[in-house]
Amino acid sequence: MKNNVLFVLLDKYAEWEAAPLAAALNSGVTPLGDTRYTTATVAPTSDAVRSIGGFRTMPDYHFDSMPQDYAALVLVGGMSWDKPEAGCVEELVARALREGKTVGAICNGASFMAAHGFLNDVTHTGNGLDQLRLWGGERYTNPEGFIERQAVADGSIVTANGSAGIEFAREMLLALEADTRENIDAWYDFNKHGLYRG
Amino acid sequence: MKNNVLFVLLDKYAEWEAAPLAAALNSGVTPLGDTRYTTATVAPTSDAVRSIGGFRTMPDYHFDSMPQDYAALVLVGGMSWDKPEAGCVEELVARALREGKTVGAICNGASFMAAHGFLNDVTHTGNGLDQLRLWGGERYTNPEGFIERQAVADGSIVTANGSAGIEFAREMLLALEADTRENIDAWYDFNKHGLYRG
């Protein structure tokens, strides 16, 4: 049976940060290849959520109806991770980590992770160290764990900045063993550098 | 008054091809900058459309309800451009071009353009020349106009291959004069190469 990867979407979510990963998980890393995963979206309520680009996404689940037997949680960045609607996600992340699930957090999703103390035992990245310090305040005690890299995986936590949708996808695909390293590297190379180069 | 850019979505649309452009148009090329455009989605019916990554998008309009006073049409690639549901888009594109509107077509959106003879008077690109020949058959009479580049703009038509979401966005933003060339180049550089490099 395939495993669900749940994408947490809040209002004004950054679709370009979710798109490469969602597509690679749901339809496979290699063209016409197989995939072990399916994707689903989770939002605070069952109402549609608008992306920054203006697309209206109907969530598959809301926080009270979501399944418990999923493989990974993805906090998609956007403009609402410091809003009250993000509050419920703290317990969601805590439970996922307790259960050994993979948690990916990109852009302000990573800032949210810092703000709730989830980055204190792992190397990580995000939208710059200043941003993590600003969001994290006293709950962020691990600035020396910050790495200036597009995406960082450590244990079950994957972080990235908002320009790193493809690097974030690569680290998540590797963490989830969605395909062989060779196939994931080829996927990355094609999507990062393109069909026609230079 | 802002101008609408309409994204045409068919079942199994490729969200990573639409995401960078939609976000830059709807929220601006520069952070906290202004934007002249808004985005909206159009689909065959008012039912939700699934992306390749599995996200369900509620279209803002369907083909019979869409506004006529828009600035540009974007054919987002995906798995349904050779299906009957794509049929109505031929007349939509023909009318847009007659009215001098910009038409962007990426991945199989560009293949669809070839199949309906819309690329015969412009330089263009797409998912490789073989693919355009295959889809275009006798209606594609301009293989010498094909350029091996991530994205090509000529007149009011912009084309790109499926790995070129960011290059496609750049050409569309320039064609629509969404911001200054300098700002659009900076947007491209950041989104293509990322916050942390190497």
Short description:
2 copies of one chain form a homodimer. The first copy, chain A, has 198 residues and is α/β, with parallel strands linked by helices.
Secondary structure layout:
Two copies of one chain form a homodimer.
Chain A: E1 3-8, H1 15-27, E2 37-43, E3 49-50, E4 56-58, E5 61-62, E6 70-75, H2 89-98, E7 102-106, H3 108-115, H4 129-136, E8 151-154, E9 157-160, H5 165-175, H6 181-193
Parallel strand pairs in A: 1-2, 1-6, 2-5, 6-7, 7-9
Antiparallel strand pairs in A: 3-4, 8-9
Helix pairs in contact in A: 1-5, 3-4, 5-6
Tell me the domain tally of chain A.
1
The unreliable regions of chain A are none
> Which fold name fills CATH's third level, the topology of chain A?
Rossmann fold
Based on the structure, what is the oligomeric state of the protein chains?
homodimer
Which percent bin holds the helix content of chain A?
25-40%
Indicate the overall shape of chain A. globular
Placed side by side, the strands forming the largest sheet of chain A appear as 5-2-1-6-7-9-8
Calculate the mean pLDDT score of chain A and round it.
96
The counted number of beta strands of chain A is 9
Query: Which radius of gyration of chain A do the C-alpha atoms yield?
Result: 16 Å
Fraction of residues in β-strands of chain A? 15-25%
**What is the CATH class name of chain A?**
Alpha Beta
CATH homologous superfamily descriptor of chain A: Class I glutamine amidotransferase (GATase) domain
- The separation of the N and C termini of chain A measures 42 Å
